[in-house]
Design goal:
The protein is an alpha/beta fold and 758 residues long. It has three domains: 1-266, no CATH class; 270-499, 3-Layer(aba) Sandwich (Rossmann fold), CATH 3.40.50; 506-725, P-loop containing nucleotide triphosphate hydrolases (Rossmann fold), CATH 3.40.50.300. The chain is 55% helix and 9% strand. It contains 33 helices and 13 strands. The strands form two sheets. A seven-stranded parallel β-sheet has the order 3-4-2-5-6-1-7, with helices on both faces. A six-stranded parallel β-sheet has the order 8-13-12-9-11-10, with helices on both faces. The longest helix is centred in the first third of the chain and has 48 residues, at 18-65. The protein is globular and about 110 Å long. Residues 723-758 are annotated as: Disordered.
Length: 758
């Protein structure tokens, strides 16, 4: 406090009587006691989690030690111990040594007391190292007593909700300040004490009382004491049963994992969690405070960094891989700006995710969402202008949103921003206009670099035009680091394997099938016609004899036997119709491009709510955007996709934050067919994709690095198959060209679909 503040404080407290001062100090003592109680209860709850976590780690480490050969004990002692006698006696693993008593070891010829002690000390050293490095995962299919105890301990913190973190911070601040101020204020409790304190003591006492009064006034205004007491009550609630803890975990897995990540020290590598941004930007982002007053959910470390990155850099692209919570990071940034006085915010997204945005805003913040879509759009727009909050509209009707002159939007969020990569499109122009009138802009996309350097440059051009000259194709050729340096001020990307250390395994299996006689006949006909799309789905042309369809049904039945939910993806609606017919109609969906957004969400909700096994059908290009399908743990892809990103996006809708089971991905492939030709080409292109796009770098160092949907390569595949099968291509049509129809059942904007005829 500066000199003026001290004088003001002294004047303010001079008017207080000794009785009033004593009452003030007494209130401060009660508040301090409440803060200390909460901190003690919170520490106890965290201690219970730590103890349960140690037991989980010990069990997991013990399982690992059973596979570590006893020779590792020799390595720890740098070869000083001879273990031949123990190995002869049947001690083959480190666990065997740990489980043995010193007496049992000494019964082995050649092993004395000293050697036995050294062997067990070395084994314990290996065990301690294993416990520190063992992976901590919660598997709903392996409910050990130790994991159950861990979930029960975590449930205490999860049930307390995000208010616990705010209460903990407030209690810590109050304890820190009042612990110092209360002793200093003691003389002010009585006239004689003040007289005996001397001039300096009286000054310190008056200033301390003034600061205490200020702290208590702020606490009353914010309801801090009620917040602290409620958190204490929440921490002292009776513990749930193991069954209840598991049931709650399946509903709120991401919240459990968030707390576990913090408690277990599972935070990912710092550089990876920060998207490998330069140190100067990282330092600025870390210095940015993030106000959580209007947020209802806790953030993981990398999510907090992403929200603060958007606030510090002001106009950026958040390009996190799917499943990492880009939406909640955007909401956290919006909630922060609301707490700092912002009133109006705007989100533009594809229609397919509009409902999801509204739900996420309402569930994860106190801000009001106004869906500016459908017949009530104008009324909702008027309500947003009048009341404030977050307007959520579609990218395609953004140009219709009208605001008064001088109206301020605190932040514009554009989800799936790669939809506006074409500057000539009307929706792109509308986004550009809104970017020009808005100071803070956040673009969100998991695949902003999937096509060309120029398209990525156009996205950055909306945000920070001065960076565009620095984004060159040569940066990609120079490697990952060069590209990251060029775009770091405007681009942040993290990948699942870098930051979600606890994700269940993703198991991918290629299911190769032989084309049967009917399949092969349909395939040869499609090849002879040069019909690429018909070649891709020829294996389903005769359902009664389809080897691929039979394998799909087998996988569905296997999943049903285990009570697992299944999502079946295909590019083609007619293939999904065949699968649905083979399942006897017992499937949800299909979700396709012509299904309205509200209907899509209802289909997903019904699928998620279905008890036990269920099947959801979806076109892969529709299911890859805007849908959360964590209820499923089995994914079946009916045919390989021409874009690796399309398939990875669809799988990421299942294998994402909040998933609690291992995810099995089955690709149904036909040997000696277009499927095999496509995979051969994609293998080389996937390496480029991994080298650049998955490390926040340009997706292509050369044209078409991750996309084989263009006509040239598709024609190449057709011609190779025509030669291999020895079929004669049709005589070219010399009549005037006409615009060919889109392949039947294929609906994928901007996919570059090959015409059904050449």
């Amino acid at each position: 406090m500066d000199g003026t503040g001290s004088e003001d404080a002294a004047l303010a407290t001079a008017a207080l009587t000794a009785k009033e001062t004593r009452a003030l100090v007494q209130e401060a003592k009660l508040v301090l006691a409440d803060a200390r109680t909460l901190r003690a209860d919170d520490a106890r709850a965290l201690g219970d989690v730590g103890q349960a976590l140690s037991a989980v780690r010990a069990r997991s480490a013990r399982e690992d030690l059973g596979s570590i050969p006893i020779s590792r004990v020799r390595d720890v002692t740098e070869g000083r111990l001879g273990l031949g006698a123990l190995e002869h006696a049947g001690y083959s693993t480190v666990l065997d040594v740990l489980d043995a008593t010193p007496y049992a070891l000494q019964l082995v010829p050649g092993i004395g007391a000293r050697t036995a002690a050294q062997v067990q000390a070395a084994a314990r050293q290996i065990a301690e190292a294993a416990e520190q490095t063992v992976a901590v995962r919660i598997d709903v299919d392996d409910r050990t007593p130790e994991t159950t105890d861990l979930l029960i301990a975590l449930n205490v913190l999860v049930a307390a909700g995000p208010d616990l973190a705010r209460a903990r911070d407030a209690a810590t601040d109050i304890e820190k300040r009042l612990t110092v101020l209360l002793p200093a204020a003691r003389p002010a409790r009585g006239r004689w004490r003040m007289l005996l304190a001397g001039k300096e003591g009286r000054g310190r006492a008056r200033e301390a009382v003034a600061q205490i009064a200020s702290i208590l006034a702020a606490a009353r205004a914010r309801g801090t004491r009620l917040l602290i007491n409620q958190a204490t009550v929440d921490l002292l609630r009776p513990r749930v049963t193991g069954f209840e803890a598991w049931a709650d975990f399946e509903l709120r897995a991401s919240e459990y994992y968030s707390l576990l990540t913090e408690a277990a020290g599972l935070e990912p590598d710092r550089a990876a969690a920060e998207g490998f941004v330069p140190d100067d930007i990282s330092s600025q982002v870390k210095a940015q405070q993030l106000d959580d007053t209007h947020r209802r959910v806790s953030l993981r470390g990398y999510q907090s960094f992403g929200a603060r990155f958007a606030l510090v850099q002001r106009r950026v692209i958040l390009g996190d891989e799917m499943g990492l919570g880009k939406t909640v990071q955007a909401i956290a940034a919006l909630a922060h700006l609301k707490a700092r006085g912002g009133r109006h915010f705007l989100v533009a997204c594809p229609a397919s995710v509009l409902i999801n945005w509204v739900r996420e805003i309402e569930e994860r913040s106190t801000l009001r969402a106004h869906p500016l879509h459908g017949p009530d759009r104008l009324a909702a727009e008027a309500g947003w202008l009048r009341e404030g909050g977050i307007a959520v509209t579609t990218i395609d009707i953004l140009h219709r949103i009208e605001v008064p002159a001088g109206f301020t939007i605190e932040m514009l969020v554009v989800d799936e921003a790669h939809y506006v990569k074409n500057p000539a499109a009307r929706r792109s122009q509308a986004v550009a206009e809104w970017c020009d009138r808005t100071e803070r802009v956040l673009f969100m996309t998991g695949t902003p670099m999937e096509n060309r350097v120029e398209e990525f440059r156009s996205l950055v051009g909306y945000l920070q035009p001065e960076l565009v000259p620095q984004i060159r194709g040569s940066d990609a050729a120079a490697g990952a680091e060069a590209f990251r340096r060029a775009v770091a001020p405007a681009y942040l990307r993290r990948n699942q394997e870098d930051v979600l250390t606890e994700l269940p395994d993703l198991v991918q299996v290629n299911e190769w099938e032989e084309l049967g006689p009917a399949d092969l006949t349909a395939y040869r006909e499609a090849v002879a016609r040069g019909n690429f799309m018909a070649m891709r789905r020829a294996a389903y042309a005769s359902p009664a004899a389809s080897a691929k369809l039979q394998r799909v049904l087998e996988l569905v039945e296997e999943a049903a036997g285990n009570g697992h939910k299944v999502v079946i993806f295909s590019f083609f609606r007619d293939v999904l119709a065949v699968v649905r017919g083979a399942l006897g109609g017992r499937a949800h969906g299909p979700i396709s491009g012509n299904v309205p957004a509200a209907r899509r969400q209802r289909i997903v909700d019904d699928f998620t709510a279905a008890p036990g096994h269920a099947v959801l059908l979806s076109q892969i290009q529709a299911g890859g955007v805007g849908l959360n399908l964590q209820a499923a743990s089995v994914v079946i892809i009916c045919e390989p996709q021409v874009k690796p990103t399309m398939e990875s996006q669809a799988v990421a809708r299942v294998h994402r934050m909040g998933q609690v089971r291992k995810v099995l991905v089955h690709r149904i492939l036909a040997a000696d067919s277009v499927d095999e030709r496509m995979l051969e080409i994609l293998r080389g292109k996937a390496r480029l994709f991994d080298a650049y796009a998955r490390r926040s770098d340009l997706a292509e160092s050369t044209p078409d690095a991750v996309d084989i949907s263009d006509q040239t390569i598709a024609r190449q595949i057709v011609e190779e198959e025509q030669r291999r099968l020895g079929v004669t291509p049709p005589v070219p049509d010399t009549s005037p060209p006409i615009t060919p129809p889109r392949a039947e059942g294929a609906v994928c904007p901007d996919s570059g679909n090959v015409p059904s005829r050449w």
